[in-house]
Amino acid sequence: MSDQIILGTKKGTLLLDRKGAAWEPRPIAHPGVSISYAARDPRDGTLWAAMDHAHWGPKLSRSRDDGRTWEDLHQLAYPKGARFIAQTLPSPGEDPGAGSGTIEYQDATLMKVWVIAFGNADQPGTLYAGTLPGGLFASRDGGSTWELNRPLWNHPSRGGDLFAGEATSKNQWGGTPAAMAYGEFVPGIHSVVVDPRDSKHLLIAVSCAGVVETRDGGLSWSGANKGMLNDYLPNPEAEWGHDPHFITASAGDPDRIWQQNHTGVFVSDDGAKSWQRVSKPERGVHFGFPIATDAKNGKVAWVVPAKSDQERMGIEGGLFVARTDDGGRSWTSFREGLPQANAYDIVYRHALDATNGRLCFGSTTGNLYVSDDHGESWRSVGHNFPPIHSVRFG
Amino acid sequence: MAQVAFTRHLLRFFPDLVEGEVQGATVRELVDELERRHPGFSSYVVDETGRLRRHVNVFIDEELIRDRVRLSDRLPHGARVFFLQALSGG
């Protein structure tokens, strides 16, 4: 059970240490800088933060001395020639006959590092970064240098190899609403799951495309969305166009993959070969962003449900956490210690974490809650944090 | 050659950045020279395609530069160049 919480917030990186029954925040790191994700590499203890500078471009920052000093890194960048098929949201004044029908390309520039993930112990120095506009980067030297994964970038579902020339296939990756804050409509990679048994086996999740898998360390990729349901497309079983909000897997049960999707909670018990929707809308368990599972028992998962994609806040003004102990067949809601009126919190996709029965989540309203009993009761750690983007145990 | 000044916000990342003379006939050449002096500097003001970042402004004397894509604006003799953050953005 971890005694440290790492927050990525709109105003910087916060580390909180458990002192007796209390959680004490250290002085804020990266003050004033929006941090989209922060976490500790379990292999060597390095702390990582993804800085979302409004003015100076996204950068990574790392600390090798437990947060005393931070080193900003600026090497993560799209290579020359990286481009993608441009997409725009339809606007009310748009003339549907005005389009020329030609494909428009856009040069790729790093818009946001959305998630940082760590390789297994047998690959020291291997890290992954999921980004907007839809690139997966890998580092083999502890994060000093990064390289775009080209087989995924050049995947037929994105139009093929646009480094080489014109599109050879149709783009199937949609934009994520999370990009609209940047004035763009581009895809984003927010989840990277490394199979603990096989470092060459990765699952990533893309908003809005779906889950994509490699079994050869990133040389080739294929969609892994069988059984997913897409309530907002004419063909709900389309291969692409899904909107996973987050995916995660249990180290002790690595073939069981959990997915909180725009269209409900899904689980796979065969390593993402097929998915089943296990939402219980009548119990409020359906829409939301984060999902966490137990490191040992993969049948246990937690979600923080929110009210519908249209409203995106607590249900009936109340916050609750729902847990399943049986792989999604049944869900129990826990409200003790959480506000049950006038709560408008939304919990982002990286803002819930679990460690041996201890859980923590934080909201965009700056509230942070911890449970020490598998999510059954909660207590507040503070109500005045900046908007919280990510919560990870250190 | 231009006299170059910076927003103090950049000092946070480059404490050695001081106002002074920098060699260059265009804004691009100034950025390249500043990158040589302060490795990483260019990634703060231009993106990986070389375009000026959306929320960064560069002035020659009191005029905004015109070419934010290639930074080809030429520097008149004795120009003063300012690297500032725009009031847009965060």
Specify the structural class of chain A.
Answer: mainly beta
In percent, how much strand structure appears in the residues of chain B? 15-25%
Q: What's the total helix number of chain A?
A: 2
Radius of gyration of chain A: 20 Å
Largest sheet of chain B: 5 strands, mixed
Oligomer description = heterodimer
Distance between the termini of chain A: 10 Å
| The CATH homology group name of chain B | Beta-grasp domain
Structural summary, described in words:
The complex is a heterodimer of chains A (394) and B (90). The relative contact order of chain A is 0.11. In chain A, a hairpin with a 5-residue loop joins strand 27 and strand 28. Chain A has two helices and 30 strands. The N and C termini of chain A lie close together (10 Å). A four-stranded antiparallel sheet of chain A has the order 3-2-1-30, with no helix packed on it. In chain A, strands 4-5-6-7 form a four-stranded antiparallel sheet, with no helix packed on it. In chain A, strands 10-11-12-13 form a four-stranded antiparallel sheet. Chain A is 2% helix and 36% strand. The model of chain A has no long low-confidence stretch (mean pLDDT 94). Chain A has a domain at 105-224. With 394 residues, chain A is mostly beta strands. Chain A has helices spanning 150-153, 308-311, and strands at 4-9, 12-19, 22-25, 35-40, 47-51, 59-63, 71-73, 83-85, 105-107, 112-118, 127-132, 136-139, 147-148, 188-194, 202-207, 210-214, 222-223, 244-250, 253-261, 264-268, 276-277, 291-293, 301-303, 321-324, 332-334, 352-355, 358-362, 368-371, 379-382, 388-393. With 90 residues, chain B is an alpha+beta fold. Chain B has a single domain (2-85), classed as Roll (Ubiquitin-like (UB roll)), CATH 3.10.20.30. Chain B is 18% helix and 23% strand. Chain B has helices at 27-37, 41-45, and strands at 2-6, 20-22, 56-60, 63-64, 80-85. A five-stranded mixed sheet of chain B has the order 2-1-5-3-4. Chain B starts with a strand and ends in a 5-residue tail after the last strand. The model of chain B has no long low-confidence stretch (mean pLDDT 94). Chains A and B meet through loops of A and helix 2 of B.
